[in-house]
Amino acid sequence: MSTETALPVLTPGDFASDQEVRWCPGCGDYSILAQMKKVLPEIGVAPENTVFVSGIGCSSRFPYYVNTYGIHSIHGRAPAVASGLKIARPELSVWVITGDGDALSIGGNHLMHCIRRNLNLNIILFNNRIYGLTKGQYSPTSLLGQVTKSTPGGAIDNPLHPLSVAIGCEATFVARSIDVNIKHLSATLKRAAQHVGTSFVEVYQNCNVFNDGAFEYATGRDVKADRTLELEHGKPLIFGKNRDKGIRLNGMTPEVVELGKGISEDDLLFHDERAPEPTLAYLLSRMSYPEFPEPIGVFRDIDKPRYEEVLSSQIDAAKQRSKGDLKSLFESGETWTVS
Q: Under the phi-then-psi rule, with left for phi > 0, alpha for psi from -120 to 50, and beta for the rest, what region is 212?
């Protein structure tokens, strides 16, 4: 007679907290939260074995809104806190929720080292190209010339490209999605969760109060087909309403070409998300509107050793080499009696 009992089937409701969601009406964060709650049951990890770690910013209120364990940590340090948690409790499913300001300004150093170590955790970066919580100052991803409360004459800092940073740190999983593209976002989050190693996902997220329409070129119904390019492993880079445009390499430089005018699909660049060398993924991360359609989807998905697993092996090996007992250690060598 079997004593096994079937595990309960999880639903999005199991991951919904009782906290009032305190984002501005219309904020793109609502969409990301909804898709996360949809994906979590499909991953199959129970709420009590899931942890969300955040830093500071609008996005970093996320741990309050999911019925899991959560840590609302300090500015920019979410990757460091999550790293310590994953090392101490490797069986947990750990998610880092951060924003372009939190992750790439004060938190840049922590983000970089978390990615290069390849711990088995997921980093979701909400990119709205603005500081929203502190009311509209420019951020590390704000575009050149962008007028904000802190740059009334236009931003003069060269913006960081989050995916380029991650690929430069040799992230083993890199992807991009958009808050309102809910099917694509859901699929991307699920792929990130399935990856064993550090997954890094940038989500274009609209701040409708301080930077409304920042990604209209990638979300507008009439223009998005011509201005975004959905990456598919093993397939040529084709885009456009009529699927009649593509990307090919001219030497090491990508260029937009039109199919059917002496150019076939075989002439185009084919996407290989599993290439061990990150050069192609980096090249794609540099393609941006208006010169190019902006790629969305999985840029890179490879396998490399995980930091916490290698560390655990080193600790086990050290224990095997250092067998002994404390009593013998304390009584060895010279001793003194203090009266």
A: beta
